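Subject: for your reference before the review

Hello V.,

The reviewers asked for a structural picture of the protein, and I figured it would be easier to keep everything in one thread rather than splitting it across files. Below is the amino acid sequence we used in the manuscript, unchanged from the supplementary table.
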Amino acid sequence: MKVDQAVKPSERKRWSREELIVAFNLYCRTPFGKLHRSNPEIIQFAKLLDRTPSALAMKLVNFASLDPIHRARNVRGLSNISIADREVWEEFHSDWEELAARSQAAMENLTALKPSAHTPLPESMIETQRTETVGSARVRLVQGFFRAAVLAAYDAQCAICRLGLPELLVASHIIPWSKDARRRADPTNGLALCVLHDKAFDIGLISLDDSHRVLLSPRAKLE
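And here is what came back from the structure prediction:
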């Protein structure tokens, strides 16, 4: 992917940690092919961060160059990836839930987003919210990050039937929310599924093997 190499003096100001966690959140929710300065969301957040779209796009490409998936594809960022870039990368991967909540809150503060009272939560999270009332805002932030990252990873399509209507897609946890707190916000623990296949997965009618092939329960097989 071609990115601009020229950097204006105004773009050389140091990135704060808050800016970097916003940039990493944006990286997680943006498909690789859209990590460029013409992406409307990159333009929007560049303006909010007082950066140019080119500078923000370059920062996202730097994060991509640290990603093992893209390193295997020989993706290279700029030569001056900072220590702070690496620290934020490692911080997210050591505690996805904490950084997901912080970065999502930072993004909402930037955009003055108001949480929707009608945003549905997976059934596996409802009991958690009942017993963790104080943490309900954090749950919403973590789930918002997780959904955006998982849908981006699957190009906003159901992993099984390829339905491409975001309104009918769910970011489903492979290891359930209640089973492993460390994996709650980890995008690699997610599947983008339509509501039908998400329900089938949740009640055990379908599953996945280690090669991510779909396994069908005998109960779901038609004669």
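For the response letter, the relevant points are probably these. The chain has nine helices and four strands. The two ends are 50 Å apart (CA to CA).

Happy to draft the paragraph if you're swamped.

O.
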